[in-house]
Amino acid sequence: MAIKKSELYSSLWASCDELRGGMDASQYKDYVLVLLFIKYISDKFAGQPFAPIQIPAGASFADMVALKGKSDIGDQINKHILQPLEKANKIRLKADFNDTALLGQGKEMVDKLGNLIAIFENPALDFSKNRADGDDILGDAYEYLMRHFATESGKSKGQFYTPAEVSRILAQVIGIHQAKTTPDTTVYDPTCGSGSLLLKVADAAPTPVTLYGQEMDEATSGLAQMNMVLHNNASALITQGNTLANPKHLDGAALKTFDYVVANPPFSDKRWSTGLTPDNDKFERFKGFGIPPTKQGDYAYLLHIIRSLKPQGKAACILPHGVLFRGNAEAEIRKNLVRRGLIKGIIGLPANLFFGTGIPACIVVIDKQDAQARRGIFMVDASAAFMKDGSKNRLREQDIHRIVDAYSKQDGSDPSYARLVPLAEIEKNDFNLNLPRYLQSRQTEDRQDIEGHLRGGIPQADVDALQGYWATCPQLRAALFAPLRPGYLALAVDKAAIQTSIHQHPEFVAYTQRMAAHFDAWRSRTSQRLKKLKPGFKPKALIVELAEDLLAHYQGQPLLNAYDVYQRLMDLWASTWQDDAYLLATDGWKAETYRVIVTKKGKDGKPGKQIDKGWACDLVPKHTLVARYYDKQKALFLTMTAGIETRAAMLAELEEDHAGLDGAFSELDKINKTEVAALLKKIKHDKESADDAEVLQQWLDLKEEETQLKKKLEELEALVDRQAYEHYPRLKEAEIKTLVVDDKWLSALDAAVRGELDRITQRLTHRVKELADRYEAPLPAVAKRVEDLQSLVDGHLARMGFAWN
């Protein structure tokens, strides 16, 4: 059976636990990623004479395994594994497996390295067999690890990684996905870090392209080289060095130029001019634009990118927001860039996206093609669209899609989000490109109406602002609001009935029915399509096709945001569908059960007793099968569960009602069957305690009923468990398809989309109630209430002999 992506990730991340005690994330990533790299290339290329990566004799993962337990294991790995691999492939594997400061000495190092290697020995991690055509499972796992390493490394050490979501945006906005690419098409990243941004561009290209990168940090450039191999781009040219002072990709004495350039340079690099004489730059990167300020290197990198572009070249660069409005030398550079028409677009991003800093950033899109004819800059403000992910913010799938859609279509239908800003308007603003100058936020202040507070009544303007609802359900407005006086309305239903009035209104009922039918239409055709999947299909291509189809299906539907529905599907893909899809792509429609064995750690930390936790089936979970084939048992299960809950509630009520000092349970330290029975035996012949005895007997009877129901429930669960387990081998392929596609996947998506409809109702209910509460009591009524309360207090004080002066 193929390994699930989620299991692969968790297994690899578990390897980090073996090292965390002795080093921080920025250090242990070197060991984990080097091991991942060696395991992968050994599985894929060992024994192949013309492979893109050569594995010298004695330098494979199997040879590393053979070193386990040896007293000099660290030194042997360095000398006989890493060094031969580096020499044969001209790569840098920066990890010292003999570092006693990080790995410990003697037996501690031997055990730690042995345990780490053992994790990669897992038969399920056979990378030669766990890769679906067109889907880079190992590359994705590498990226997963890089994100976690960056998250834990902190601000000072997380800059080796550009979040994948941002990388995907850059890859799309440069337009490489629409180009006619060939292997001669070149892509360059002058500050490539671990190479993730370059690889996202390669993924977006219709055909293989040639990748170039340079990275200053030696260890990180080694990560980039490994990353290229893991992503099947072993021919990428990654160099190490200072890009501004010593660019390595040259064409004679000049900078080599490229078709596409992407970059995430260090923000506001204060050392950018180290080793460089800016006013006499031999590559003339600043000529005609201006020299960036000494303490702000952002434009130095951008001008390097522009000089590295071919005459028709396109680029996208991540920069801090300050480059859009800072003055002095940067203002002059910005003016020259705008006047030459080099800036095609600017995309504002949320704050706190990047691991090296919390400040907001933007994407500056450069396009030399038709630069002289350019008459505007397309601006997008996506700063408010994100989700919280731990201590960082993160772009959702819907945020990425909306940004790319707006930019690629030059869609200015929502001018608060995106529009083409004419150069004349920019010039009037003295070439200040700060996005709020051009894109006014739709989030207006919720204004308080003075007359409404003084005289009562809900302002008609606030109700008119909910026009989207009234356009869909015209009569619903009249059902909720009644005329009060010109410009003001009164609530026509009780506040407690607002939600019910909306839900039960005929127009809203008809709307929800239309939306249900709308989903069913998509569900029907998608179900047929999914059931035709055969082993070898490409999961990544599948989700793109499904998601785009769903997004298009909901475009233009009233009240529902198509991107919200799209996000629901992408969430399900990440949580469940993705693993299922990879299982299907490898094994086909097979619902195989397996035992869940958990190994406990012994007192010495070594593997101890194995515990059988039952069985499971990944593709068709037990509850999915039971729901379809065991209706009677499921109904009985629900009845028994309800009975148990009822008796538990009755027991709790008895205990609460008779828990006082004179209560039936007052003598008990603990209320349990043994204690209650003993007390009942003690007092049952005492006539004065007859009432208490009756309560205790009632408690025991309920407890016995609860116990018996629990016993029968356990027996039923065991029976259904056995029947279901025996059912799996009898499942036919058509049944498995129905269980997976209809009962597991599409039912979950149906519920998720219905959740979006519920949100629509909740938003309207909340707003109507908020307005009703706000203007419920006009000022005179509030003043009268205060006066009445004051009189009441004065009366009480007078009776107590006090006078309020």
UniProtKB/TrEMBL annotation:
Residues 10-120 form the N6 adenine-specific DNA methyltransferase N-terminal domain. Keywords: Coiled coil, Methyltransferase, Restriction system, S-adenosyl-L-methionine, Transferase. InterPro entries: D12N6_MeTrfase_N, DNA_Adenine_Mtase, DNA_methylase_A-5, DNA_methylase_N6_adenine_CS, SAM-dependent_MTases_sf, T1MK-like_N_sf. It comes from the Bacteria. It holds the Pfam family HsdM_N. Residues 135-446 form the DNA methylase adenine-specific domain. Its EC number is 2.1.1.72. Signal peptide: none annotated. It is an enzyme of class 2 (transferase). It catalyses: a 2'-deoxyadenosine in DNA + S-adenosyl-L-methionine = an N(6)-methyl-2'-deoxyadenosine in DNA + S-adenosyl-L-homocysteine + H(+). One of its GO terms (molecular function) is N-methyltransferase activity. GO terms for biological process: DNA restriction-modification system; methylation. Residues 696-726 form a coiled coil. Belongs to the N(4)/N(6)-methyltransferase family. PANTHER family: SLR6095 PROTEIN, TYPE I RESTRICTION ENZYME MJAVIII METHYLASE SUBUNIT. This is site-specific DNA-methyltransferase (adenine-specific). It comes from Hydrogenophaga pseudoflava (Pseudomonas carboxydoflava).
